[in-house]
Design goal:
Layout (H helix, E strand, L loop, with lengths): L4 E5 L3 H13 L3 E5 L2 H11 L3 E5 L7 H10 L8 E6 L3 H10 L3 E5 L3 H17 L8 E3 L2 E4 L4 E4 L2 E3 L3 H11 L6 E2 H8 L8 H15 L6 E4 L3 E4 L3
Parallel strand pairs: 1-2, 1-3, 3-4, 4-5
Antiparallel strand pairs: 6-7, 7-8, 8-9, 10-12, 11-12
Helix pairs in contact: 1-5, 2-3, 6-8
Length: 229
């Protein structure tokens, strides 16, 4: 079986070497780039399975690289795991809104990084196919065509917005979404909404889910995600 290829775009040589060695030991094939332009070219040429992308890069920074990856049909679906300094919540939000799938803060454990890489790859491989597919996540069943949700055998009555919100999160378990991403997916780009109104919708959804309310997790300073375990 071919090894999965990870492209690491990181300008600090010691960190690039650390990631390369650790991911290679975990069984991945690793490509490295020290600048955004170089990494973008490699992504287009080599078609890796995932990109580990530092935000702070010389020249073309990580956000610009991520936007370019998402704008190119050849790399649009390529998973991106971004690296950011601890506590830079604004950068984390910006990265996720640009299209990153997950993030790891510096300093980081190589083992944790490898686990997050595998998690993103697994989620991408197991992601449901279509918008109309019936989703089964543990004891929750979400049926888009019938606009129905069951928790075990108990039907859950949701508003249209609450249903779209739950369906959006459940289709990508484990993925972190900002409030703006949720608004765009659930109500469209033109819907005037504040962060508070998203929080209110989440509160109402959790209340109706009852014992399944912990399926929707808050990621402090970033947004929300649906538990993947």
């Amino acid at each position: 079986m071919d090894r999965e290829t990870i492209l690491v775009i990181e300008d600090e040589g010691d960190i690039l070497d650390l990631i390369t060695v650790s991911l290679t030991r975990e069984g991945f094939r690793v490509l490295g780039a020290a600048a955004g332009e170089e990494g973008l070219a490699l992504a287009r040429e080599e078609a890796p399975d995932l990109v580990v992308l530092d935000l702070m890069l010389p020249g073309m920074d990580g956000l610009q690289v991520c936007r370019a990856l998402r704008a190119d049909p050849r790399t649009r679906a390529l998973p991106v795991l971004m690296l950011t300094a601890r506590g830079e919540e604004a950068d984390i939000v910006a990265g996720l809104e640009t299209g990153a799938d997950d993030y790891v803060t510096k300093p980081f454990s190589p083992k944790v990084l490898a686990a997050r890489v595998r998690s993103v790859l697994r989620r991408r491989a197991e992601a449901p196919g279509g918008e109309g597919d019936v989703l089964r996540v543990r004891d929750l069943v979400i049926h888009p065509g019938r606009h129905a949700v069951l928790a075990g055998e108990r039907p859950i009555e949701l508003t249209a917005t609450e249903f779209r919100l739950l369906h959006f999160l459940a289709r990508r378990p484990g993925w972190v979404f900002t409030r703006n991403q949720i608004v765009q997916a659930v109500r469209g780009d033109g819907y005037p909404v504040t962060e508070r109104s998203v929080d209110v919708q989440i509160y109402g959804l959790r209340r109706k889910l009852g014992g399944a309310d912990d399926y929707v997790e808050t990621v402090r300073g970033v947004g929300y995600r649906f538990k993947d375990d």
